[in-house]
Amino acid sequence: MSDRTNASRPMARETGGSAPAEDLRPAIADLKEEIAALREEVRRLRGRTDSDALLTKGEAAELLGVSPRTVDTLIAEGTIASIKVRQCRRIPRGALEAYIERKVRQDN
Question: What DSSP string runs through 1-51?
Answer without folding.
Answer: -HHHHHHHHHHHHHTTTTHHHHHHHHHHHHHHHHHHHHHHHHHHHHHHTST
